Amino acid sequence: MTMYREKRFEEIKRLLTERKELSIDDIMQAVGVSRDTARRDVVALAASGAGRRTRGGIVSLTFGHTVPSYSERLKLFSAEKTAMAKTALSLIRPGGVYFIDDSTTLLKLSQSINSEVTVYTHSLDNAIALSVKGDVTLRILGGKLNHHGRFFFEPATLTQLGRIAFDAAFIGATAISKDGVYFPYADDAEVKATLAQAARQVIVVSETQKFKIQAPYRGFPLAAIDTLITERALTPAERQWFSPKLKLLAANS
Protein backbone atom coordinates (compact mmCIF):
# COMPACT_ATOMS: atom_id res chain seq x y z
CA MET A 1 0.00 0.00 0.00
CA THR A 2 2.86 2.36 0.86
CA MET A 3 4.64 1.70 -2.45
CA TYR A 4 1.41 2.19 -4.38
CA ARG A 5 0.85 5.50 -2.66
CA GLU A 6 4.41 6.61 -3.43
CA LYS A 7 4.04 5.68 -7.10
CA ARG A 8 0.71 7.47 -7.21
CA PHE A 9 2.28 10.61 -5.78
CA GLU A 10 5.09 10.43 -8.34
CA GLU A 11 2.57 10.32 -11.18
CA ILE A 12 0.52 13.20 -9.73
CA LYS A 13 3.64 15.32 -9.32
CA ARG A 14 4.71 14.51 -12.88
CA LEU A 15 1.35 15.62 -14.23
CA LEU A 16 1.42 18.73 -12.05
CA THR A 17 4.79 19.71 -13.52
CA GLU A 18 3.40 19.22 -17.02
CA ARG A 19 -0.03 20.83 -16.63
CA LYS A 20 0.56 23.27 -13.72
CA GLU A 21 -2.92 22.55 -12.28
CA LEU A 22 -4.89 19.37 -11.61
CA SER A 23 -8.50 19.06 -10.57
CA ILE A 24 -9.79 16.29 -8.31
CA ASP A 25 -11.38 14.70 -11.38
CA ASP A 26 -8.05 14.85 -13.24
CA ILE A 27 -6.34 12.97 -10.38
CA MET A 28 -9.14 10.40 -10.14
CA GLN A 29 -8.82 9.63 -13.83
CA ALA A 30 -5.01 9.69 -13.98
CA VAL A 31 -4.28 7.33 -11.08
CA GLY A 32 -7.58 5.45 -10.76
CA VAL A 33 -8.65 6.40 -7.24
CA SER A 34 -11.87 7.48 -5.59
CA ARG A 35 -12.79 11.11 -5.02
CA ASP A 36 -12.06 10.84 -1.29
CA THR A 37 -8.63 9.31 -1.97
CA ALA A 38 -7.85 12.02 -4.53
CA ARG A 39 -8.74 14.71 -1.98
CA ARG A 40 -6.51 13.06 0.65
CA ASP A 41 -3.67 12.91 -1.87
CA VAL A 42 -4.05 16.61 -2.59
CA VAL A 43 -3.89 17.43 1.13
CA ALA A 44 -0.78 15.27 1.57
CA LEU A 45 0.99 16.67 -1.48
CA ALA A 46 0.24 20.26 -0.51
CA ALA A 47 1.52 19.60 3.02
CA SER A 48 4.75 18.18 1.59
CA GLY A 49 5.31 21.31 -0.49
CA ALA A 50 4.68 19.66 -3.85
CA GLY A 51 1.99 22.18 -4.74
CA ARG A 52 -0.65 24.55 -3.47
CA ARG A 53 -4.10 23.26 -2.63
CA THR A 54 -7.08 24.99 -4.29
CA ARG A 55 -10.81 24.65 -3.95
CA GLY A 56 -10.98 22.10 -6.76
CA GLY A 57 -7.56 20.42 -6.73
CA ILE A 58 -3.90 21.41 -6.65
CA VAL A 59 -1.67 23.86 -8.54
CA SER A 60 2.08 24.17 -8.88
CA LEU A 61 3.75 26.61 -6.53
CA THR A 62 4.59 28.96 -9.42
CA PHE A 63 1.15 28.79 -11.01
CA GLY A 64 -0.40 32.22 -11.69
CA HIS A 65 2.86 34.15 -11.57
CA THR A 66 3.16 34.33 -15.35
CA VAL A 67 0.90 34.04 -18.38
CA PRO A 68 1.53 30.61 -19.98
CA SER A 69 2.08 30.29 -23.71
CA TYR A 70 -0.68 29.06 -26.02
CA SER A 71 0.86 25.58 -26.30
CA GLU A 72 1.15 25.37 -22.51
CA ARG A 73 -2.48 26.48 -22.08
CA LEU A 74 -3.66 23.71 -24.41
CA LYS A 75 -2.53 21.17 -21.79
CA LEU A 76 -4.52 22.74 -18.95
CA PHE A 77 -8.06 22.16 -17.76
CA SER A 78 -9.03 19.65 -20.45
CA ALA A 79 -12.18 18.51 -18.65
CA GLU A 80 -13.10 22.05 -17.65
CA LYS A 81 -12.43 23.44 -21.13
CA THR A 82 -14.67 20.82 -22.69
CA ALA A 83 -17.50 21.54 -20.25
CA MET A 84 -17.26 25.31 -20.78
CA ALA A 85 -17.14 24.91 -24.57
CA LYS A 86 -20.27 22.76 -24.41
CA THR A 87 -22.02 25.47 -22.38
CA ALA A 88 -20.91 28.14 -24.88
CA LEU A 89 -22.16 26.00 -27.77
CA SER A 90 -25.66 26.01 -26.27
CA LEU A 91 -25.76 29.81 -26.78
CA ILE A 92 -25.16 29.64 -30.54
CA ARG A 93 -28.26 29.82 -32.74
CA PRO A 94 -28.56 28.90 -36.45
CA GLY A 95 -28.34 31.97 -38.67
CA GLY A 96 -26.40 33.97 -36.08
CA VAL A 97 -23.31 36.09 -36.61
CA TYR A 98 -20.60 35.54 -34.02
CA PHE A 99 -17.05 36.45 -33.11
CA ILE A 100 -14.94 33.69 -31.57
CA ASP A 101 -11.77 34.69 -29.76
CA ASP A 102 -8.32 33.08 -29.69
CA SER A 103 -8.87 31.33 -26.35
CA THR A 104 -7.92 27.66 -26.15
CA THR A 105 -11.32 26.91 -24.60
CA LEU A 106 -12.96 28.64 -27.55
CA LEU A 107 -10.94 26.48 -29.92
CA LYS A 108 -12.97 23.61 -28.47
CA LEU A 109 -16.10 25.63 -29.22
CA SER A 110 -14.98 26.14 -32.83
CA GLN A 111 -14.35 22.41 -33.17
CA SER A 112 -17.90 21.70 -31.93
CA ILE A 113 -19.98 24.01 -34.14
CA ASN A 114 -22.12 22.18 -36.71
CA SER A 115 -24.84 24.68 -37.58
CA GLU A 116 -25.39 27.34 -40.23
CA VAL A 117 -23.78 30.40 -38.69
CA THR A 118 -21.33 33.12 -39.69
CA VAL A 119 -18.18 33.25 -37.60
CA TYR A 120 -15.54 35.97 -37.58
CA THR A 121 -12.22 35.18 -35.93
CA HIS A 122 -8.65 36.45 -35.82
CA SER A 123 -7.44 33.13 -34.42
CA LEU A 124 -5.30 30.90 -36.64
CA ASP A 125 -6.41 27.76 -34.81
CA ASN A 126 -10.10 28.65 -34.86
CA ALA A 127 -9.83 29.32 -38.59
CA ILE A 128 -8.30 25.89 -39.19
CA ALA A 129 -10.97 24.18 -37.09
CA LEU A 130 -13.83 26.05 -38.77
CA SER A 131 -12.45 25.62 -42.29
CA VAL A 132 -13.76 22.04 -42.41
CA LYS A 133 -17.25 23.00 -41.23
CA GLY A 134 -19.37 23.10 -44.38
CA ASP A 135 -22.30 24.85 -42.70
CA VAL A 136 -20.17 27.65 -41.26
CA THR A 137 -19.51 30.86 -43.18
CA LEU A 138 -16.02 31.69 -42.01
CA ARG A 139 -14.64 35.25 -42.05
CA ILE A 140 -10.96 35.42 -41.16
CA LEU A 141 -9.64 38.77 -39.98
CA GLY A 142 -6.30 39.58 -41.56
CA GLY A 143 -3.03 41.18 -40.66
CA LYS A 144 0.27 40.05 -39.19
CA LEU A 145 0.35 36.79 -37.23
CA ASN A 146 1.32 36.99 -33.57
CA HIS A 147 3.16 33.68 -33.33
CA HIS A 148 2.92 33.43 -29.54
CA GLY A 149 -0.78 34.30 -29.29
CA ARG A 150 -1.58 32.72 -32.69
CA PHE A 151 -3.87 35.55 -33.81
CA PHE A 152 -3.81 38.03 -36.70
CA PHE A 153 -3.98 41.79 -36.31
CA GLU A 154 -3.90 44.95 -38.38
CA PRO A 155 -5.36 48.37 -37.46
CA ALA A 156 -8.05 48.07 -40.16
CA THR A 157 -9.50 45.16 -38.14
CA LEU A 158 -10.81 47.58 -35.52
CA THR A 159 -12.80 49.54 -38.11
CA GLN A 160 -14.16 46.34 -39.65
CA LEU A 161 -15.27 44.92 -36.31
CA GLY A 162 -16.85 48.19 -35.25
CA ARG A 163 -19.26 48.00 -38.20
CA ILE A 164 -20.65 44.54 -37.34
CA ALA A 165 -23.50 44.04 -34.89
CA PHE A 166 -22.51 40.56 -33.74
CA ASP A 167 -25.25 38.50 -32.13
CA ALA A 168 -22.57 37.60 -29.60
CA ALA A 169 -18.83 37.88 -29.15
CA PHE A 170 -17.28 34.90 -27.34
CA ILE A 171 -14.18 36.23 -25.63
CA GLY A 172 -11.54 34.50 -23.57
CA ALA A 173 -9.74 36.23 -20.72
CA THR A 174 -6.07 36.23 -19.88
CA ALA A 175 -6.72 37.89 -16.53
CA ILE A 176 -9.74 39.23 -14.68
CA SER A 177 -9.51 41.96 -12.05
CA LYS A 178 -12.10 44.04 -10.26
CA ASP A 179 -11.73 46.80 -12.85
CA GLY A 180 -11.83 44.73 -16.02
CA VAL A 181 -10.69 41.95 -18.33
CA TYR A 182 -7.01 42.03 -19.27
CA PHE A 183 -4.84 40.66 -22.09
CA PRO A 184 -1.08 40.35 -22.73
CA TYR A 185 -0.99 42.27 -26.05
CA ALA A 186 -2.05 45.87 -26.61
CA ASP A 187 -3.41 45.26 -30.12
CA ASP A 188 -5.46 42.27 -28.97
CA ALA A 189 -6.86 44.30 -26.07
CA GLU A 190 -7.99 46.88 -28.66
CA VAL A 191 -9.81 44.14 -30.57
CA LYS A 192 -11.64 43.11 -27.39
CA ALA A 193 -12.51 46.72 -26.55
CA THR A 194 -14.04 47.17 -30.01
CA LEU A 195 -16.02 43.94 -29.69
CA ALA A 196 -17.38 44.97 -26.30
CA GLN A 197 -18.90 48.00 -27.99
CA ALA A 198 -20.10 46.29 -31.18
CA ALA A 199 -21.60 43.00 -30.02
CA ARG A 200 -25.18 42.66 -28.85
CA GLN A 201 -23.93 40.21 -26.22
CA VAL A 202 -20.47 39.94 -24.69
CA ILE A 203 -19.89 36.39 -23.49
CA VAL A 204 -16.67 35.86 -21.56
CA VAL A 205 -15.51 32.25 -21.24
CA SER A 206 -12.86 31.89 -18.57
CA GLU A 207 -11.60 29.63 -15.82
CA THR A 208 -11.77 31.23 -12.38
CA GLN A 209 -8.00 30.83 -12.00
CA LYS A 210 -7.77 33.88 -14.30
CA PHE A 211 -8.76 35.92 -11.20
CA LYS A 212 -5.25 35.14 -9.90
CA ILE A 213 -3.30 36.14 -13.03
CA GLN A 214 -2.13 39.60 -14.06
CA ALA A 215 -1.83 40.94 -17.60
CA PRO A 216 -0.87 44.47 -18.72
CA TYR A 217 -3.62 45.64 -21.11
CA ARG A 218 -7.28 46.14 -20.22
CA GLY A 219 -9.78 45.28 -22.92
CA PHE A 220 -13.03 46.34 -21.25
CA PRO A 221 -14.64 46.79 -17.81
CA LEU A 222 -16.52 43.97 -16.10
CA ALA A 223 -19.76 45.91 -16.56
CA ALA A 224 -19.53 45.20 -20.31
CA ILE A 225 -19.96 41.44 -19.76
CA ASP A 226 -23.46 40.08 -20.34
CA THR A 227 -22.69 36.39 -19.69
CA LEU A 228 -19.77 34.78 -17.87
CA ILE A 229 -19.08 31.07 -18.39
CA THR A 230 -16.76 29.49 -15.81
CA GLU A 231 -15.90 25.98 -14.65
CA ARG A 232 -17.50 26.49 -11.23
CA ALA A 233 -19.84 28.79 -9.35
CA LEU A 234 -18.28 32.02 -8.11
CA THR A 235 -17.72 32.60 -4.44
CA PRO A 236 -19.79 35.43 -2.87
CA ALA A 237 -16.69 37.66 -2.86
CA GLU A 238 -16.02 36.98 -6.56
CA ARG A 239 -19.65 37.54 -7.48
CA GLN A 240 -19.55 41.04 -5.97
CA TRP A 241 -17.09 42.11 -8.66
CA PHE A 242 -19.78 41.84 -11.32
CA SER A 243 -23.06 43.53 -12.17
CA PRO A 244 -26.18 42.01 -10.55
CA LYS A 245 -27.51 41.67 -14.12
CA LEU A 246 -24.67 39.36 -15.14
CA LYS A 247 -25.78 35.91 -16.33
CA LEU A 248 -23.43 33.40 -14.73
CA LEU A 249 -23.16 29.90 -16.22
CA ALA A 250 -21.03 27.44 -14.23
CA ALA A 251 -20.26 24.54 -16.56
CA ASN A 252 -19.71 21.93 -13.85
CA SER A 253 -22.55 22.80 -11.52
From TrEMBL:
Ranges in coiled-coil conformation: none
Domain HTH deoR-type residue range list: 5-60
GO molecular function: DNA binding
Tagged with keyword Cell inner membrane: no
Protein name in UniProt: DeoR/GlpR family DNA-binding transcription regulator
InterPro entries, per the entry: Carb_Metab_HTH_regulators, DeoR-like_C, DeoR_HTH, NagB/RpiA_transferase-like, Tscrpt_reg_HTH_DeoR_CS, WH_DNA-bd_sf
Organism: Lacticaseibacillus suilingensis
Keywords, sorted A to Z: DNA-binding, Transcription, Transcription regulation
